[in-house]
Amino acid sequence: MENEASASIVLEKVRQKVDRIDAVLASINSSPQRPETLLEWGSDALLRTIHDNLVTHFVAAKTFIPAIADAGLYLGIGGGMADKLFPYYAYNSMIQSALRMMFRYLDHENTARRIEIRELIISAMVTTDEKANTGERKFNWITSHQVGEHIASMIETPAAFAGPIQLLNSSHGVGRSLSMELTPPPPPSPQANV
Fold first, then answer.
1. CA–CA distance, 101 with 112 (Å, rounded to integer)
2. What kind and span of H or E run contains 157?
């Protein structure tokens, strides 16, 4: 998903294999090689990270949303760092905040409501089933299998997960809708443009 041209190649390969696209799952990210405070970052590194973690999601959405069949789902995966401070992860928090707003705007601009558009925020540590069974799992961790089960529920019944931003923050939330809705702003008054 480097750019629109590369994303179009992926879309064409998908179209060669299937007659109809009912759902698209976009899970795209990369991480810097070493932890640094925000002011230790250079602008080139920050721009590359924004490209690799935000622009790629934009390119995927722009390419695949028009290709999804009616009543389908476009689902992006995000993380829970937009609302929390983690040492050396300012870049991640900034990008996740922007990604969340991107999905809100995609949903808001989806006026025809031909498809559902969602972002799933995974705000818990994810472990493997193997580690969970050995006692290495912490209290609020979820397994990769549970994440997959939740995503399958969203794909099977997208309307049951109302609201553009959905949260999965514990194993108790698997298969359940937990919306992170903003209160919509009131319509502008006629005097606002005076």
1. 20
2. none
pLDDT tens sequence across 123-143: 988 887 766 666 655 667 888
First-to-last CA distance in the chain? 43
Q: Which two tokens stand for residue 150?
A: 């939740």
In angstroms, the CA 105 to CA 86 distance is 26
Q: Which of 94, 92, 72, 107 is nearest to 180 (CA)?
A: 107
pLDDT tens-digit map of 7-29:
999 999 999 999 999 999 999 88
Phi then psi dihedrals of residue 168, to 5 deg: -125, 110
pTM confidence score: 0.86
Phi, psi of 73 (to 5 degrees): -140, 135
* Residue 123 contacts residue 79 (beta carbons within 8 Å): yes
3-state secondary structure of 71: coil
Helix residue spans in the chain (DSSP H): 4-17, 43-50, 56-64, 90-108, 129-133, 144-156
Across the chain, what does the average pLDDT equal? 87
Nearest by Cα to 76 from 108, 42, 118:
118
| Res. 193: pLDDT tops 50 | no
